[in-house]
Write a structure and sequence with these properties.
The structure holds two protein chains of two kinds. By secondary structure, chain A is mainly alpha-helical. Chain A has 14 helices and four strands. In chain A, the strands form two sheets. Chain A has a two-stranded antiparallel sheet with strand order 1-4. A two-stranded antiparallel ribbon of chain A has the order 2-3. Chain B is mainly alpha-helical. Chain B contains eleven helices and two strands; from the N terminus they run ααααββααααααα. Chain B has a two-stranded antiparallel sheet. The chains are: A mainly alpha, B mainly alpha. Chain A: This is High-affinity branched-chain amino acid transport system permease protein LivH. Chain A: It is a multi-pass membrane protein.
């Protein structure tokens, strides 16, 4: 029982959150914000597999997010794909791209890996900006609605449940993965690549697995955001979005699935609250990022966990 | 041929600015292992403060000096208020702090100044010089010479002064430097101040050509970071060569291949270089000790 709780505790907490939150929502605006939180959390949970467990940095994940988003826009509009099929194609395309570029890129370490993934993300965003005939260029393009069995997913409430359900599934899969031999291999690589390879862990292969999985998570999240908004622009895949994802993961806590959800919640809700400050929005956001990183260095969820253990 | 020369000059001009940003990255990285993503904001401050001080009636040289002083103050505040308190944090955490600082500075700049683009008058007139059939702005020459002077001054500072040698010693081995009595915290602060000054001077020099606004720092930081990596992180010579290379790649890529993918050419080449030489062009091969 204890072991099961350790493994699925965060999944259960997220499921409970998704199920119970609507009981206290005073208006549909809250459904909208929560749906956005869940969508970004899906991407953050995926990126945490790469960063928190396998210990590899990526400053370009918005590129994969953008591939998912543009797939559900371009696929139905130009090639007549059903929206759900375009979503799958987008996730697969992101996975294949991650597989192809992952092998050479993941040989790099630390800051070199950071700049390589940064370059990759910028290249992908640039394609969306410049291939205007397909993507509508800097103005972006409209995204058709998701239709499942004749039912049209439109508005905040349906998307709350779609994104929330997917987030629960995503965290369940991630929890299973990190508890599996693959997860142990990730952590071994995180601690020391040399030691891991001495123990017989195929370091290159497991890094690639983490990279591909995190790309697929990001692409699904990107597709959801595009379908929810009904519009996609190159900013979807921009550098700042990549930074947001990394910040969500580190803020919430590296190696904590629940932390990724908390990080996504903070970075999504904060700007909504900060609009009160109008023009000070960005300055305050930057300041909060700095303060969080100085005072809760291990991330919010692990820091609180440590605090509770010390008390208990 | 004139076309080639034209691309060459424009590439070198913008490359010189990337080189200064990369140099700033390198200085701070060497002294403290921090990748300072707010480096581009120093360039922005250099340009913006000069523009607004000049508009307020301050003579141009004084306005430029004021801009450098403001940037240095901001650099020191960044170190003492955000980097020093986070001592011992992981590399990613420190990167996020500097990115937070860059967002903060951009936000403040948008409020204190405005969101429009601004230009400075050229220091030596707008009459282009004819060199081998290419038109070269006098300001381009000033940027190139200015960058050369900065690099030379930095080299003299590092090799001929006690403070400079303390920076090198801290970069080589922080613990050993502390043991021989160097105040390493002050040395790191000094590296932030010098990086800020270099960035700000770059901003002053280049604003008559490229214009400036509150948001120019982001792309400059990315290109400067890429240039520093291309040259081999932590190598000042590599930073300069890397910066010039990125500028040239961009100019020739835009001229001969596609201007829409101007920003991409540099990153594609950097990706290719890193695949072949994972340590960058001038990087040392570090062996990981177990």
């Amino acid at each position: 029982m204890r072991g099961l709780l350790d493994r699925y505790g965060s999944t259960l907490a997220i499921a409970a959150l998704v199920a119970l939150l609507p009981l206290v929502f005073p208006s549909s605006f809250y459904f909208r914000i929560s749906a956005l939180v869940f969508i970004f959390a899906i991407a953050a949970v995926g990126l945490n597999l790469l960063m928190g467990y396998a210990g590899q940095v990526s400053l370009g994940h918005a590129g994969f997010f953008g591939i998912g988003a543009y797939a559900v826009a371009v696929g139905p509009t130009h090639w007549g794909l059903p929206v759900w099929a375009a979503l799958i194609v987008g996730a697969a395309a992101a996975g294949v791209l991650a597989y192809l570029v992952g092998r050479p890129i993941l040989r790099l370490k630390g800051h070199y890996l950071a700049v390589a993934t940064l370059g990759l993300g910028i290249l992908i965003a640039m394609v969306f900006t410049n291939e205007a005939r397909l993507t509508g260029g800097p103005d972006g393009m409209a995204v058709p609605r998701l239709v499942l069995f004749g039912w049209i997913a439109r508005g905040s409430v349906p998307w709350y449940w779609i994104a929330g359900g997917t987030l629960v599934l995503a965290s369940f899969l991630a929890a299973n993965l990190v508890a599996s031999p693959t997860g142990r291999a990730f952590r071994a690589i995180h601690d020391s690549e040399v030691a891991a390879s001495v123990l017989g862990v195929d370091v290159a292969r497991y890094k690639l697995v983490a990279f591909v999985l995190s790309a697929i998570y990001a692409a699904v999240a990107g597709a959801y955001l595009a379908l929810f908004d009904g519009l996609v622009t190159p900013a979807t895949a921009g550098f700042l979005r990549s930074i947001e994802f990394v910040t969500m993961v580190v803020l919430g806590g590296l190696g904590s699935i629940l932390g990724s959800v908390v990080g996504a919640a903070i970075l999504t809700i904060l700007p909504q609250v900060l609009t009160v400050f109008h023009e000070y929005e960005h300055a305050v956001l930057g300041l909060i990022m700095i303060l969080f990183m100085i005072f809760l260095r291990a991330g919010i969820v692990p820091s609180l966990g440590m605090l509770m253990r010390r008390r208990g | 041929m004139p076309e080639f020369l034209q691309f060459l000059f424009s590439g070198l001009t913008i490359g010189a600015v990337y080189a200064l940003v990369a140099l700033g990255f390198t200085l701070i990285y060497n002294a403290s292992d921090v990748i300072n993503f707010a480096q581009g904001e120093f360039v922005m401050l250099g340009g913006m403060v000069t523009v607004f001080a000049a508009a307020a009636g301050v003579p141009l040289p004084l306005a430029a000096l004021l801009a450098v002083i403001v940037a240095v103050a901001v650099g020191l505040l960044l170190y003492y208020l955000a980097i020093e308190p986070a001592k011992g944090a992981s590399a990613v955490t420190l990167i996020i702090i500097t990115i937070g600082a860059s967002i903060f500075l951009r936000g403040i700049a948008a409020i204190v100044f405005d969101k429009r683009f601004h230009k400075l008058p050229s220091f030596a007139g707008d009459e282009p010089l004819r060199i081998g059939g290419a038109a070269v702005l006098p300001q381009s020459i000033i940027v190139l010479v200015g960058c050369g002077v900065i690099v030379l001054a930095l080299w003299l500072f590092l090799t001929r002064t006690l403070a400079g040698k303390a920076v090198l010693a801290t970069a080589a081995n922080m613990l050993a430097a502390r043991l021989v009595g160097i105040n390493t915290s002050r040395v790191v602060a000094l590296s932030f101040a010098v990086s800020a000054a270099i960035g700000a001077i770059g901003g002053v020099l280049v604003t008559p050509i490229t214009l400036t606004n509150y948001d120019v720092g982001t792309m400059l930081a990315l290109k400067g970071f890429a240039a520093a990596m291309l040259g081999g992180m932590g190598n000042p010579l590599g930073a300069v060569v890397g910066g010039l290379l990125v500028g040239l790649l961009e100019a020739f890529g835009a001229g001969y291949i596609s201007s829409a993918y101007k920003d991409a050419t540099a990153f594609i080449v950097i990706l290719l270089v890193l695949f072949v030489m994972p340590q960058g062009l001038f990087g040392r091969t570090a062996t990981e000790r177990v």
